[in-house]
Amino acid sequence: MIKYYNRKNNKYEIEKIAGDKYLNWIYSSPIGMSLLEIIIKKKFFSKAYGYFCDSKASRKKINTFINDFNIDASMFEKKVNEFKSFNDFFTRKLKKQFRPIDIDSGSVISPGDGKLIAYENIKLNKIVHIKGGIYKLNELINNKDIAKEFSGGTCLILRLCPTDYHRYHFIDSGICTETLKISGDYYSVNPIALGKVPEIFCRNERKWSVFDTDNFGRALYIEVGATCVGSIIQTYKPKISVTKGDEKGYFKFGGSTIIMMFQKDKIKIDSDIIYQTQKGFETKVVMGEKIGCKI
Description:
The chain is an alpha+beta fold. It is about 25% helix and about 25% strand. A hairpin with a 4-residue loop joins strand 1 and strand 2. Helix 1 crosses helix 2.
């Protein structure tokens, strides 16, 4: 059971998890953990499922998925019967009125939909996750020089579950570098898995880039893959000016994570998000929503 904080109604809610029975079995039983290490965490497993989700045959999953998780189809740019595959549905675009962007230049917005935790005054060699994992920023991006820029700064971890909108966006206007890829495994990023497998974010495949923002200094984007994530697709053009809210990329099928780092004394995250993180809860946010402000 995963409890999170819904800041819109000031209540705690229980997340409905896609494939929760399988996740619990895989990460809680000796046989499941053996299969995880031998097959499930491997790239070929996620790629194979990704190929299926790209096929016409996968379309039959769409209506069941929408109904099981009460997804509001009125938000979609396309009609449900226009999706060519499950991945076409999974990477769906939404009508702009359903994800308004807080355009105030001093507002920090969420880069995507999901459950958010935030840490301030981070130590580069000991970024402690809500589920007890400890990560080193240098090991996340394999670059000591870039990592040093974010010492004492702010870390955001946004977890996207399979039912979420899976496109991610720029949190400010500015210019982004090219994306670098680090190969790795494909463990689930669900809290069930985070509590069982150490340093998942440093073990999974990930991509990273540095974003020179107009208002918040330099920010680091790290997109982390997960089980059954067919691909992490970047749709932006490197070294070209972007506008706040512009799309950066998207994840194909599967839960995923976006990690963002900000330099010291550049931003202040909203107090309710910090408070919930300290209590051990993620906060539900959507793309474009204000989550903090410029210092």
